UniProtKB/TrEMBL annotation:
<protein>
    <submittedName>
        <fullName>Cytidine deaminase</fullName>
    </submittedName>
</protein>
<dbReference type="InterPro" id="IPR016193">
    <property type="entry name" value="Cytidine_deaminase-like"/>
</dbReference>
Length: 118
C-alpha cells in the first residue's frame, strides 16, 4: 500500500527518511539506506578517507553484507545527483539482483526517480 499523498510505499518512505537523516547528521554529500530480505535497514553516509572512498549506497550495501544480509528488497539514496551512479547500481544488483528498486531522492527527501538495479 502506498501513501495517498506521495504515492510512495511507507517502507520506501522510511528508507528515504533514514538516508536523508544520516546525510544531514554527518554532513556528508550523500546519505543512503537499504532494506534487506528480512526487513532490516542499514544506513550510511559517504566515506571519504585518504585511502578509502565509497559512496553512501556502496557503504550501506557493504554494511548489509557484513551483517549477514542475503538479499535486498530496496535501496534509497539522497543526493544532489540527477541519476544513480553505475557503481551504486552494481553494488545493489550484486546483493539484491537486477530487479531491486533504487529510489533517488533530492536533498529535501522528495523522490525524483525509481530505477531498477538492472
Amino acid at each position: 500500500m502506498s501513501d495517498a499523498a506521495t504515492g510512495i510505499h511507507p517502507e520506501d518512505k522510511k528508507i528515504i527518511t533514514l538516508a536523508r537523516s544520516v546525510r544531514a547528521r554527518n554532513g556528508v554529500a550523500e546519505g543512503a539506506a537499504v532494506r534487506d530480505e528480512t526487513g532490516r535497514t542499514y544506513v550510511a553516509g559517504t566515506v571519504e578517507l585518504e585511502s578509502l572512498r565509497l559512496s553512501a549506497l556502496q557503504t550501506a550495501v557493504a554494511m548489509a553484507v557484513a551483517s549477514g544480509a542475503k538479499g535486498l528488497e530496496a535501496a534509497a539514496v539522497v543526493s544532489k545527483a540527477e541519476e544513480v551512479a553505475a557503481a551504486d547500481l552494481a553494488a545493489v544488483r550484486d546483493l539484491g539482483g537486477p530487479g531491486t528498486p533504487v529510489l533517488l531522492a533530492g536533498l529535501d527527501g522528495s523522490l525524483r526517480v525509481t530505477v531498477e538495479a538492472g
